[in-house]
Amino acid sequence: MMQLFQARNSASARPKRALFQRLMGCLLFPAAMFCLAGCQSHEFPDYPANYREYAYITNGGSNTVTVLDVVNLRQDRVIPVGADPTGVAVSSKRNEVYVVNTGSNSVSVIAAEKNAVVATIPVHQRPHFISVSSDGKRAYVANSGSNNVSVLDLDKRREIAAIGVGEGPGLAAISPDGNSLVVSNRLGNSVSIIDAKTDHVRSVWSGCPGATDIAILPDSSKAFIACSGGHQVMALALAMAPPPSSHARSLSVQPMPTDAILAMLDVGKTPIYLALKPDGGEIFAVNYNGGSISEIDTSSNEVGGAYMVGTHPMSGLASSDNSTLYVSDFDADSLGVFSIDDAELVDTARTGDGPDAMAFSKAGHLLFVVDANSGDIAVIRTLTHALLTMFPAGKQPNDIAVKAFLVPSHHAL
């Protein structure tokens, strides 16, 4: 998508979006599901009656969010939101979905139980993405056009602080422990670290040209930032209070009283996305102009192998068992299936035109792929790596998030 390609190069949007203009008059697949030969119902989870699971896709060109019913594999509805919706995130503590409207400088709050917008929160200029704290109380939005980060109180549904950072911030990522907010300043070629307890900038690190994507380890001890204007990844130790001795072994590094730079890691050309394994042991830098992924050992801060995975890889997503990495190849209209244990590309999966952002279903048996150019969603069976079905999205689909929850039993009738 040209709009967000320009934003990534001039306003630091996170590189999980399409890079080229989508085709006008794209082919939309019927909403009805079709199933490939060999698809058996027993390979899918047996859901309780009060279980709900939805995938939410932001459509920048139609100012809507497409909602897919994951349980029944059908389109549920299309929700109008603000202008040019881009990033989307879900809460782990409440049944809510948050959509960033870049064109109208706001965040739409969707109640997942009824799939309707229940609130709109104003932010500042040209926001692109949102990060939600693990306790579900706060959200953080980097405003690329006003060089600040909005702190949102999700209980009161309002902004409670605006923190000045570097030029053109694209992503503000909150650490799992809720103590550190890491901000990539693309135009400022820098990284700001904010103390999330006080909402004050704690440190600033320069020397990361085109700072874009961020990965924070599960133990909150380190952050890795893709410097997409070159061929490096910045590794930072995040300030942490000393833990009880019984927990010290779980940390990747010894707790540090202040933030510190650990290394500048050489990877492939134009690293635009960082795919973190769920166990936190490795990160894979997705190198768009290198056609490759670079493996980073997060304990030693060293780059291992580099592997060719396609023409222009856009993003990556690791399976919950840490065994497989799926890499979207924007120009090849397919996914690369990379075996992490064997360190090789073992398969490919067909998608639509311009595959970009991805999300797993909660059970992990389905992988949803946003096809930016053809304006649809490819559904891949992870067991066989086969295309199961496709659904139409709106114009210029950008991002995707999945929310699963249980409703009260009387609602399920």
**Low-confidence regions:** 1-42
Strand order of the largest sheet: 3-2-1-32
Under the CATH scheme, which class? Mainly Beta
Number of helices: 1
Which second-level CATH architecture applies? 7 Propeller
Instruction: Specify Rg, calculated over alpha carbons.
Output: 20 Å
Number of extended strands? 32
User: How far is it from the N-terminal to the C-terminal residue, by CA?
Assistant: 42 Å
Using the alpha-carbon principal axes, give the shape: globular
Oligomer: single chain
Structural class label? mainly beta
Determine the CATH superfamily: YVTN repeat-like/Quinoprotein amine dehydrogenase
Helix content: under 10%
Query: pLDDT average, as an integer?
Result: 89
CATH topology title: Methylamine Dehydrogenase, Chain H
Number of domains: 1
Which percent band covers the strand fraction? over 45%
| Largest beta-sheet details | 4 strands, antiparallel
Question: How would you describe this structure in keywords?
Answer:
globular, 413 residues, mainly beta, Methylamine Dehydrogenase, Chain H, 4-stranded antiparallel beta sheet
